[in-house]
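Priority: medium. Attachment 1 of 2:
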């Protein structure tokens, strides 16, 4: 984190961003990029995917600049990174074309900038996490929200690393399944009402 940065300075930059100030956006990008990249990398240790995640966060920040009400910009950005990582890991490679097509063809024409998808996925994610068995929920939250490795989780919960990996695999597959069904529902909704 940049030592010269403080919350008052951040709030001024975000106020300027809201007014469409590109220089302020550039400073926000410069100040936060490394910190957010590192947060993403803890959860998704793949360089190119993390770069994509951070680019998505900043693109979304710019696209929504006029409507965002940010009391705590840093908390907002970290939450956005967590959400983008979860969206990213929930996509199977074979689903990527479908997902990109879905977002490009359905969400963009509705001028929602992804807000409909984000809202639906966030709601589904909250329900999904609440429905997980207690041990699996703890492991899922520690890994994807706290950024802990499977080794650290196994020590913290006093269980084998293999158990942690199995629980994460089970939870991730279940989440992918639910998100695929959500996408299918939204596509059918779109074609039923907007075509």
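Attachment 2 of 2:
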């Amino acid at each position: 984190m940049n030592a010269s940065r403080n919350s008052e300075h951040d709030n001024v930059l975000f106020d300027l961003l809201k007014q469409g100030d590109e220089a302020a956006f550039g400073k926000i990008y410069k100040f936060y990029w490394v910190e957010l990249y590192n947060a993403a990398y803890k959860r998704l240790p793949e360089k190119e995917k993390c770069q994509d995640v951070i680019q998505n966060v900043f693109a979304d920040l710019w696209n929504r600049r006029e409507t965002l009400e940010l009391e705590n910009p840093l908390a907002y950005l970290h939450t956005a990174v967590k959400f983008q990582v979860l969206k990213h890991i929930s996509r199977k490679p074979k689903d990527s074309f479908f997902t990109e097509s879905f977002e490009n063809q359905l969400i963009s024409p509705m001028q929602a900038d992804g807000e409909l998808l984000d809202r639906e996925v966030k709601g589904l994610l909250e329900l999904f996490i609440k429905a997980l068995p207690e041990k699996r929920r703890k492991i899922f939250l520690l890994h994807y929200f706290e950024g802990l490795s499977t080794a650290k989780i196994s020590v913290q919960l006093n269980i084998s690393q293999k158990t942690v990996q199995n629980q994460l695999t089970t939870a991730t597959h279940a989440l992918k399944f639910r998100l695929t069904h959500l996408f299918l529902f939204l596509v059918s909704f779109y074609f039923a009402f907007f075509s």
